[in-house]
Amino acid sequence: MKKLLLLLVLFYSINISSQNPDIVGTWYLNAFTADLSDPEPITNEDFPQNPTLTINPDLSFEGVGACNTFSGNIIFVDDIEYSSTNFSATTMDCENMNYNDSEHNYFTHFDDAQNPTVYIYGGGTELYWEIAPGFGLQFQDNVFLSIKDNVNTTISIVPNPASSNLSINTNGALISEFSIFNILGKKISSEMYNGQKIDVSSLKSGIYLIELISEGKKTVKKFIKE
Length: 226
Known about the structure:
The protein is mainly beta. The chain has 2 domains: 2-140, Lipocalin, CATH 2.40.128; 151-225, Immunoglobulin-like (Sandwich), CATH 2.60.40.3080. It has 2 helices and 16 strands. The protein has helices spanning 2-18, 97-108; strands at 25-33, 40-41, 52-55, 60-64, 69-78, 81-89, 117-123, 126-132, 135-140, 156-158, 165-169, 175-182, 187-192, 198-199, 206-214, 217-225. The protein has an 8-stranded antiparallel beta barrel. It has a 4-stranded antiparallel sheet with strand order 13-12-15-16, with no helix packed on it.
């Protein structure tokens, strides 16, 4: 029994040490890639904000698309090969056909039902997530500069986690209305924003999304209700 446990510990240690630690962190999508073609940079026509991917040290991942969030796990297999599991995403309508289509294309790369094996490499300033050699996503380690007027990077919500009230730090952005959704994308409330604190005391404990509208642009933030 002790020998078996020792072997399992050694296998786990080798597995962890073999994977690339440089993939851990928050990455910003800058292009879709296709073999033998130049990368196709994203634009404001595709997304209202810079889509993100955060890979955690335990190889769980999460991120934001056009208006929805997603999460899942990857398991190291060999070299740059990983198994993708437990993908889930919220299902809000982004109310723009281009946003919906671009987000669907983005999320497809993480969906283990469609792509159970992925290839991840890079690190430092660039990361590549591919569903087949040459076909996938290209990321960089800072906000992609061609995404202009990125409302998502200027607005923050505090405190997070929250027990009774949320405050929005607008940093000059003009918020006209907000909606709160549960993690499954079901709308719970929608109100005009008057600059006051937002009462969340009636919400059950859990993870929620708050959608903020500023000058016709939509941004989504995740918060935890204690």
